[in-house]
Structure formats: structure tokens, C-alpha cells
Write a structure and sequence with these properties.
The structure is a single chain. This protein is an alpha/beta fold. The chain has two domains: 51 residues, no CATH class; 311 residues, Alpha/Beta hydrolase fold, catalytic domain (Rossmann fold), CATH 3.40.50. Helices cover 38% and strands 17% of the residues. It contains 13 helices and 15 strands. The strands form three sheets. A ten-stranded mixed β-sheet has the order 4-5-7-6-8-9-12-15-14-13, sandwiched between helices. Strands 1-2-3 form a three-stranded antiparallel β-sheet, with no helix packed on it. It is globular. The N and C termini lie far apart (50 Å).
Length: 398
Amino acid sequence: MKIGAYSVAATEGPRLVRLRNRRWLARSLTAVGAVGCLLGTAFAANGVSYHFVRRLPVPDLPALVHPPAAPQLIARSLTSELRRRGYGECNPYDFVGLGPYSPYRKLRVGRIAIPQKGGHTADWGYDVLVHFHGHTALRMTLAQVARGVSFVGIDLGNGSGAYSDAFQAPESWPLLRDSIENALRAHSGKPEAHIRHVALTAWSAGYGAVNEILKYHADDIDAVILLDALHAAWEPAPRGGRRKVVAGPVEPTVEFARQALADDKIFVFTHSEVDPVTYPSTSRTAAFLLDELGLDEQAANPNADPFGLLGAVDIGGVHVWSYRGNDKPAHCAQVAHVDRAVRDVLEPAWDTPAMDRNVPITPAPKLGPDNAGDHDEAISTRQARRGRDAVRAHVTSG
């Protein structure tokens, strides 16, 4: 069903659910009272003492009348008609725009979408997701399913080098974090507004930024979500010898996963079967990572889904999900797995405050060259350089 523009896994509207809950509560209380009267009559008739009855276990009334869980938000799928019109995994359809979020606010690098109403604690703490590469496509899913996280999107061009270069300075993350908190204060009008939890997320090449930030600031990061976005390195091998995967430059990310295994952090890594050949694929990197952590993947049946789940590991704070597909659409399809990562893992663990979805929908923003329909975020070299220069200028001026 749908509530407004949002699809939920339920069959009743919110007003009907509230009415049903009231009736359920009234009937439950009536039933408890009736049972009590019958027991009292029976005990009295059979000479059962008051002291014996007093020792009987008391029913757990809250458990008895606990209302059903809130309906789960689900992202809408492409229909056959939309696919006929040319939409697909690499050209997603924008169902809700920014939905319940306010229009983007510009940051020193990137932009932030903050819930119009709600999404913060009583002391104005916000849970924030900072995403690198392909943020337009990710926003199309996140706006449909998020409970209340604020969302930062940063695109710096193609290739992980663009992202690692921009965040290789130790000062770059603290400055970006300050910029985010300034935006939260401006949006809320509250000087005490702050980041309560923060997650770094990336698709494809965006892992370059995540890995650099983890080098210096892993203690400041609560969660990492990598969507087909982690490539380890090959260990040099003799000519004709079998190449071995090693952590190499992504050791900071591997170390973060180790912390997540101890339940200190949250680490989500999804991957396809795409093989770039010249460097370890995300699937080879995942196999290496699981071996490093001493974990075994549990097989799953993808059925007829061309991008279905092949296997999963969900232990401690570590979640590694393997998906079918070795082509470009399979790579693009990984972005949509942010729904499961945020809705089912991140926000429940953080107990993210809910935002109000009964607000006017904010339409899709027009961001110029980084086309909402292009999963590769085809941004020009000049724009990518401008983003990297903004980080460096902020570092030098700070």
C-alpha cells in the first residue's frame, strides 16, 4: 500500500491502524476483566484462599495489548512500463524527489538534505549519512525508506583517485564535519544542533574518500556502508604465478571491519560479481575480508532474480552481502541496497529519531551536469577539480 507517495509493507492506513489499536486495547482490557471475574467466582466457590490467589503470576498486560509494529517503508520498484520507457538500474526513476527532506543546503563540499520536521533528538542531535559517488541515484532510494537520517551527497568525478586525493589531508574530514554541523544549526535555528551519529557510505569509486577518512578519523566514524565499493590490491607474484589479494592501501577499511566484528562499529559491504581484471574485484575483496575476519558466508538462493542475493554474513556489526550479476546493470543495482543497510541495520541500531513524512514533498532538485538519470554521475573534469580544490582551500584557510 501507499501512504502519500511512500510505499509501506502494510494493508491499512494510519488512521485505521490507530482505530484498530484502540479497539484491540479495549477488547483486551475487557477480556482480562472478564477472566478475573470468572476466576474469582470459581475460587470462591471452591474455597481457594486469597493468599494462594495472590501468589499467582500476574499477566503481562503491556505484552498482551502491544500494538503492531509500524509499517516498514519499502522502495518502489520499476514497472514494466517504466522499463519500456528506458528506465533501469543505471537510469533509475525518481519516484519522490527529496520527499520529506528540505531542499539541499550547500556545504563546503557537496550538499546536505535534512528532514523538514523531526529526525533529531530532544537535544537536537542528528544522525547523518555522508555518501560519496552517485549520490543522486542513492537519494532516490533513501528518500523513500529512511526513518530520519540526514543525507550528505558528494560527487568528485570518476575514479577512486579523485576521492582519495580530496580527503588525503587529515584536516579535510573535521572541516567537512564542521560544515555539516553549521548546516544543521542553520536549518534548525538551534545553536546546539549537532551530529549524534555519522556513517560514511560509498558506491563504486567513492570508497577512496572513505578509506582516507578512516586513516585518521576512524574513532569519529560510527558506521561504514560500501555498495560494490571496495577494491584491495594484488600482491606482486612471479611471472605466471597465482596472484594473491592483500589489503594494501585499504587496510584502514579492513581494520574498521575488525572493530565492527567486536560490535564497536557497523560495517556493511555489498558486492556484485563484476570483475575489473586489472585489480581485485569487490567479490575477491569480500572473500579476502571474510578470511581476515575468520567468517564464513551463508549461501542464499537468488531464484530467478538476475541481481539476487547469493550469500550473506551478519555477525556482530559486520554485514557482507553477495549479489548475482557481472555487468554494468548489476553494478548499478548495488546502489539500491542502501535501503536494507539503512532501514534494517543502521537506523534500528542507532534508534534514529523519526522524521515527519506527512509534509509536502520536496521535488527533485536540478543539479545541472550531474544528471539524475546517469548512475555514473558524469561530472566534468573541471567540476571535479573544483570540488577537490574546495576541500584543499578549506584546509589551507583553516
